[in-house]
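If your schedule permits, I should be very grateful for your opinion on a structural question. The matter concerns a single protein, recorded as an amino acid sequence and a row of backbone structure tokens. Could you please explain, in whatever detail you think fit, how the structure tokens follow from the sequence? I set the record out below, with my sincere thanks for your time.

——
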Amino acid sequence: MAKEEPPSVSRDLQELQRKLCLLLESFQNNSKVVAFMKSPVGRYLDKHPFLALTVLMFVSMSAIPVGFFLLIVVLTSLGALMGAILLEGLVISVCGLSLLCILCGLGFVSLAMSGIAMMSYVVVSCLMSYWFSPRPLTQQTANTDCQLAMKSTDFEGLYQE
């Protein structure tokens, strides 16, 4: 029986990296993305990636509460057309304060999630570069022998004193 070799992890990672590079290149060549990146806001966010990630998470997480708020505004506006002006003002005020509280909370959550995402990215990239960096076997054994020799000379110096 012939041995079956498992698929090479490095070849799979290179293929994945190639596909991701093509996807990023297609996004970067989009005319709307190019126009946004030339604007002052795009240049500022390009220089501050942590802020860009925080804004992206905040906007994506605040879409549902803002949608509910707008739905309540439309429904209460319909109620105002029927003569419930005091009820509309009360409901919009309460909902506006509720939305303010929710958006402040989402701002802090998105800031924390951005920090966690950035730290995770740094840790994972460091671990990936450490695990998949090419290290010849001869250097590892020579380095270990050198460290052992240095430790033994340190102990000999201690015993002589």
